[in-house]
Write a structure and sequence with these properties.
Order of helices and strands of chain C: EHEEEEHEHHHHEEHEEHE
Distance between the termini of chain B: 46 Å
CATH class of the largest domain in chain C: Alpha Beta
Number of helices of chain C: 8
Number of strands of chain C: 11
CATH superfamily of chain B: Thiamin diphosphate (ThDP)-binding fold, Pyr/PP domains
Number of domains of chain C: 2
Strand content of chain C: 15-25%
Chains: A alpha/beta (390), B alpha/beta (309), C alpha/beta (296)
CATH architecture of the largest domain in chain C: 3-Layer(aba) Sandwich
Largest sheet of chain C: 7 strands, mixed
Oligomer: heterotrimer
Number of strands of chain B: 12
Radius of gyration of chain B: 19 Å
CATH architecture of chain B: 3-Layer(aba) Sandwich
Distance between the termini of chain C: 31 Å
Shape of chain B: globular
CATH class of chain B: Alpha Beta
CATH topology of chain B: Rossmann fold
Shape of chain C: globular
Strand order of the largest sheet of chain B: 4-3-5-6-10-9-11-12
Number of helices of chain B: 11
Strand order of the largest sheet of chain C: 2-3-1-4-5-6-7
Structural class of chain B: alpha/beta
Low-confidence stretches of chain C: none
Helix content of chain B: 25-40%
Largest interface: A-B, 47 and 51 residues
Chain lengths: 390, 309, 296
């Protein structure tokens, strides 16, 4: 396969085209607009044989996806920030109805003030909606992970909608080198979509009956167990993809982490910047390493505990915060995951990179060192917001 | 299997009911009667998208369903968007050789789901020209949740959020004209209907089925509970709504208007209003006002039908 | 039942949607609160509509604030507002030993005893007749409180006046009268040693375990709601006079339940399993060939 240069957004559009999606519901919003524009072009030029629904809002975008997925059509949409918020209630229904919609989210800060730039506040607001959620760090990954998403979501033992998160602007609008994948390989890798409970007059069924208190609990347990059980299939699919394409994905990626005394945890494309910091500090003899959380939901408890428990200090960078609440959302989850362990690192929380605020490698060096210092001194503030002009 | 058909007058009516009995509607529910008749006319090769509301609740308490056709309910305001997705999905699958029937997509929503919270999605779906039928079952308030007003609540009606009192006559605005809004999207078929005129309703459903594009049918769904009327009055009230001109029965086919029940002389609206507790508080002046406005609105439609000639 | 002054009393009301069972509970609670007691009125939080069986609950205590919020599962007192309900719902379920069962029924105490006696006080009054006479409508929610109070002084009868006036305005006077009449007329039998008569078996609803829920909670049996007997809701049913019937089919067209069926020879008949007794068919029949008959 030829090595080409593509913007993250376009890499996604390519993956969607190669996956032979049947329906695209499209509503533009910065910074994902390039995705839906390119898909419109593909449909208009006959390169993608799909029905393109230019809906009138994101709420309708996700609602249209519910319909098309329910009838057995492979379905895709993309959104960001406010758009993800507007479709919020529909997200829950997509998951509880077990409809394997795939959605790319170009992570964007939530208003107010209005910000079109990237952070993870939109992701964190959608934390509990029941979707499978996966983070990409570069254009190759978004391409690969979108393909895998169709395979995972539509698996008859999964049937959950899946979000692929990519950083708004920093990944969506940046050209990088990547390899596509041959159509024949993709056709083999992603079988035709076949929902066991699709809407069809031949087998009339009812989707969306209302739940009295006597059944709601059981419905939710069933859903939660199924989501947790889907982790196994996610890992199997990534293994299979690894054999197919030679690129391997794990729920928790490690970078120079095995003998690290101090670990930094990041998610998304800033992870790559963090790697520069790790390299520099390692050259300096500092035993630091990086954990990159790729699988956000279902949370990979086992893999995370295994990766983190040996370190003395774990510095977590959140790109969102929960107002008035505990340390950044990711840090809270991480602490919760570690709580039951006898041996666990001290966890230090930093919040930064909000609303598109750039983070350089030296910023990461600083927070790692600051984290170590706080850990050594036993200073446990709830969290520290970095690089605030004061 | 031969479908059973009975003959009523010159009408052949299937005895199949795609809305099964055992549903939890109030005694004498005009909406459920309308849905039952519509379902009969639609037949089996359909997929229904239903908004949250009376019909949805009474027909689908898990683990039971009254539906004998494929049916999906998700949320309150997105019926038309879900329908758009289903229609597009079927379309794409057919093109790719993976779906083999001419399934009609049908959206059903109450007045709240249509004129209020769902109007955006409806407008979008009509503008995009999806091939589906949208049925508004209008019982003139948010009945499922206990009789709160909607923009389809008629002027002067008392609801729990527009109660009549010493400082208010109840609903202070005129009923939103949804058929006109639908027609403004330039769609091929718009109609009003009432189960009190069941054969007219069925004819309209059959016409809508043939449209290759969006069709909108606004059905007056008499709610004895919410309108504070006797439980056996649904048909009578529907008839009076039509014959007083409060709810004219008409069609707009490619812009051409036809009045289906063209009464030379409209009955006084008071005959209709006095049977309903929700209008009990109205003064003679209020009723005059309503009478004038009803006449004016009716004449607007009549003029449009005359222009056709 | 001798009420311990400091006991928590729990009441369960059985009614039909739209017939004011919740109002009964609310009036009792308001009256109790007016007396300085602690009280709670709770509806069953369901989407049940007019005619469907519904429940309402009260808790009353002289002494302690009420903290429980779950439905009452072991009532001290059960009041059944509708004469038909005791035959379709297990009204004595959970009724405490030595408790009270108050029934609205036109039947005599002896007849009722043979069907419903048990380890509880039995009280019977023809609430429907009283309501019809005093209020002009067969709505018994205020009437039956009178009967309840006579059998068990949860509240004083007089304490109901203010809440009823507040709630009913101009119609308060007659409601209080109806209450008083039921108080005067109710007949009471002491607890029998053992439960009488043919035990009525009520099918417990079988709900799915979480492992049995299909993905997305889909329901794959089309129209399985037809198992549900909406006929239990009615208090009247249609009777055909086939001599008058002209087989126009309008009754068939106008039934919201779809429970009028062709019966051969082009006539129609009603399926009483589903008929809710709305009366549309009788009202719309052009030949008045259908009459609505009250359920006995």
């Amino acid at each position: 396969m030829e090595r080409i240069g593509l913007e993250g957004s376009i890499a996604i559009a390519e993956a969607v085209r190669l996956a032979d999606v049947d329906v695209v519901a499209a509503y533009p919003i910065t910074p994902q607009t390039h995705i839906v524009e390119r898909l419109a072009e593909y449909v208009a030029n006959g390169k993608l044989n799909a029905n393109y629904i230019p809906v009138e809002s994101e709420h309708s975008a996700m609602s249209a996806c519910l319909g098309s997925s329910a009838v057995g059509a492979r379905t895709f949409t993309a959104t960001a920030g406010q758009g993800l918020e507007l479709m919020h209630e529909v997200l829950y229904v997509a998951a509880s109805s077990r409809l394997p919609i795939v959605m790319a989210v170009a992570n964007r800060a939530l208003s107010g003030p209005l910000s079109v730039w990237g952070d993870h506040s939109d992701v964190m607001a959608a934390r509990d909606c029941g979707w499978i959620q996966i983070f990409a760090e570069n254009a190759q990954q978004v391409f690969d992970l979108i393909l895998c998403a169709f395979r995972i979501a539509e698996d008859s033992k999964v049937l959950f909608p899946t979000m692929i998160h990519l950083d708004g602007f920093h990944l969506s609008h940046v050209i990088e080198p990547l390899y596509l994948l041959e159509q024949e390989k993709i056709n083999q890798f992603i079988p035709k979509y076949n929902h066991p409970y699709a809407l069809n007059p031949d087998k009339p069924l009812t989707i969306g009956a209302f739940g009295l208190p006597s059944v709601y609990t059981e419905a939710k347990k069933s859903q939660d167990i199924a989501l947790c059980d889907s982790k196994k299939i996610i890992l199997d699919v990534w293994k299979e993809f690894g054999k197919l394409a030679g690129r391997h994905y794990l729920p928790v990626e490690k970078y120079k982490a095995d003998d690290a005394e101090t670990l930094l945890l990041t998610m998304g494309s800033y992870s790559e910047t963090a790697m520069i910091a790790i390299d520099k500090m390692r050259e300096n003899g500092e035993k630091v390493g990086l954990l990159r959380l790729r699988l956000w939901r279902p949370f990979p408890f086992d893999e995370f505990r295994q990766a983190a428990s040996g370190a003395k200090t774990l510095v977590v960078l959140d790109r969102a915060l929960s107002f008035g609440g505990p340390p950044g959302p990711v840090c809270s989850e991480v602490q919760s995951a570690l709580y039951s362990l006898e041996t666990k690192p001290k966890v230090i929380s930093f919040v930064g990179g909000l609303g598109g605020r750039d983070m350089s490698a030296s910023t990461f060096e600083n927070i790692i060192r600051r984290g170590i210092k706080k850990s050594d001194e036993g200073v446990v503030s709830d969290f520290e917001m970095i690089e605030v002009r004061e | 299997m031969m479908e059973n058909v009975i003959t009523i007058g010159k009408n052949k009516i299937t005895t199949e009911d795609y809305l099964a009995p055992g549903h939890r509607a109030c005694l004498g529910c005009g909406e459920e009667l309308a849905v039952r008749l519509v379902a009969k006319a639609l037949g089996k090769d359909i997929i229904i998208v239903n908004a949250t509301g009376c019909t949805e609740i009474v027909s689908s308490p898990f683990p039971y369903t009254s539906w004998r056709v494929p049916w999906i309910h998700t949320l309150f305001e997105n019926t038309s968007a879900v329908a758009s997705g289903i229609e597009s999905g079927i379309n794409a699958l057919k093109r790719k050789g993976r779906y083999h029937s001419n399934t009609k997509v049908v959206a059903m929503g109450g007045d709240g789901a249509t004129a209020d919270i769902g109007i955006q999605a409806l407008s979008g779906a009509l503008e995009r020209r999806h091939n589906f039928i949208y049925f508004c079952f209008d019982n003139e308030a948010y009945m499922n949740t206990g009789i709160q007003r909607s923009s389809a609540t008629p002027f002067g009606a008392s609801t729990t959020t527009s109660p009549a009192g010493s400082a208010s006559i109840g609903q202070t605005t005129w009923k939103k004209n949804m058929p006109a809004i639908a027609a403004a999207h330039d769609i091929s078929y718009v109609a009003t209907a009432s189960p009190s005129y069941p054969f007219d309703l069925i004819t309209k459903v059959n016409k809508a089925k043939e449209i290759d594009g969006p069709a909108y049918i606004h059905v007056l769904a008499v709610c004895p509970t919410g309108w504070r009327a006797p439980m056996d009055s649904a048909i009578e009230l529907g008839r009076l709504a039509v014959t007083t001109g409060v709810f004219p029965l008409y069609e707009i086919e490619d812009g051409k208007y036809t009045l289906n029940v063209n009464t030379a002389q409209l009955r006084p609206v008071e005959e209709y209003l006095k049977l309903q507790g929700r209008f009990r508080h109205l003064s003679p002046e209020n009723i005059s006002f309503i009478q004038e406005r009803v006449k004016a609105e009716y004449n607007k439609i009549r003029e449009k039908t005359i222009k056709n000639l | 039942m001798n009420l311990d002054k400091n006991a928590l009393i729990e009441i369960r009301w059985h009614g039909r949607g739209g017939q004011g069972a919740v109002t009964s509970a609310e009036l009792v609670a308001l009256a109790a609160i007016g007396e300085g007691k602690y009280a709670q009125a709770m509806p069953s939080f369901g989407p049940e509509r007019r005619g469907a069986p519904v429940l309402a609950f009260n808790r009353v205590s002289n002494v302690d604030p009420i903290r429980a919020r779950a439905p009452v599962s072991e009532p001290d007192i059960v009041v059944v507002l509708d004469p038909g309900l005791m035959y379709i719902a297990d009204v004595t379920s959970g009724l405490k030993k030595g408790g009270v069962l108050v029934l609205n029924s036109p039947k005599s105490l002896d007849d009722i005893k043979s069907e419903f006696s048990g380890d509880w006080k039995l009280a019977v009054v023809n609430g429907t007749a009283i309501a019809r006479e005093t209020l002009g409508v067969p709505i018994v929610n205020t009437t039956m409180i009178g009967a309840l109070v006579k059998v068990c002084e949860v509240i004083k009868l007089g304490s109901l006046e203010e809440p009823i006036e507040e709630r009913f305005g101009a119609r308060a006077k007659n409601n209080i009268k109806a209450c008083q009449k039921a108080y005067d007329d109710v007949v009471i039998a002491e607890p029998a040693g053992i439960s009488a008569s043919k035990p009525r078996t009520f099918q417990a609803e079988v709900l799915p375990k979480w492992q049995e829920m299909l993905p997305g909670c889909v329901v794959v049996e089309p129209g399985n709601a037809s198992e549900y007997r909406t006929g239990d809701w009615r208090s009247q049913y249609p009777e055909y006079n086939y001599d008058k019937c002209i087989k126009c089919g309008l009754c068939y067209m106008f039934c919201p339940e779809g429970c009028i069926e062709p019966k051969g020879d082009d006539y129609f008949k009603v399926n009483l399993y589903y008929c809710k007794g709305c009366g549309i068919c009788a009202k719309e029949c052009p030949k008045t060939a259908i009459t609505m008959i009250e359920e006995s």
